[in-house]
Specification:
alpha/beta, eight-stranded mixed beta sheet, 226 residues, Spore Coat Polysaccharide Biosynthesis Protein SpsA, Chain A
């Protein structure tokens, strides 16, 4: 029923944990394949993918292009896009299976709740800000995952093959009225916030988002994002 698509680039530290969270979905029969779309990793990302029975798709780096290639290779009608440093919470497969059974599911897209694997107050504040961003502006990011039926995905034109903001670009085409928020959590690594500093990273993200809405080309924004 479900193809899981994960873009990777030097994802060795996080990929095993992300894949382990998918095991209940595989055991239940919900997940039929996991596709790793690699952008030229020099670490063990591809080896991990092959050793765990994932399908490996390779090509140039760039998350939009990697996600698009993964979707093109997928065999199932339901597509679940995840980041390599994102771990779905226990019971996610039951909620997704129940959602798929609903009559409206094929015309909507499902998003998970955002959470960070950092216990400190800055992480809780960021989680709250993300919840407010989703509520007020209907702008979940790719680290919240995306579950979408292929018919809707194809109708919208899928992921644009751009190096950054591919998640915002697709979410805008989906639109607020077609977004469903799951109770299950997508727990994402806080490493980039810890290394760069929460305030600095958040301001940089906001700056890049503003540039995107001002129609600055993503290839230029990615230089600032790093």
């Amino acid at each position: 029923m479900l193809s899981v698509i994960i873009p990777t680039l030097e994802a060795e530290p996080h990929l095993p944990l992300s894949l382990s969270a998918l095991i209940p979905g595989v055991v239940s029969g919900l997940v039929k394949e996991v596709i790793i779309s690699d952008g030229g990793s020099n670490d063990a990302s591809c080896e991990i993918a092959e050793n765990t029975g994932c399908r490996l798709v390779t090509g140039p780096a760039g998350r939009g292009g990697q996600l698009a290639r993964g979707a093109e290779a997928a065999k199932c009608n339901w597509l679940l896009f995840l980041h390599a440093d994102t771990v779905l919470s226990e019971g996610w497969e039951k909620e997704v299976a129940h959602y798929i059974e609903q009559d409206y599911s094929r015309t909507h897209a499902g998003i998970f709740r955002f959470a960070l694997d950092d216990f400190r107050p800055p992480a809780r504040r960021l989680e709250w800000l993300v919840a407010m961003r989703c509520k007020l502006f209907a702008l979940p990011y790719g680290d919240q995952g995306l579950l979408i039926h292929r018919s809707l995905y194809d109708q919208l034109g899928g992921y644009a093959k751009i190096p950054l903001m591919e998640d915002v670009d697709l979410i805008r085409r989906i639109g607020r009225a077609r977004l469903i928020y799951f109770r299950s959590t997508a727990l994402t690594s806080a490493a980039r916030y810890i290394s760069g500093g929460y305030p600095r990273r958040q301001l940089r993200n906001l700056f890049c988002l503003s540039l995107f809405f001002l129609r600055v080309p993503p290839r230029m924004i990615v230089r600032l994002y790093g």
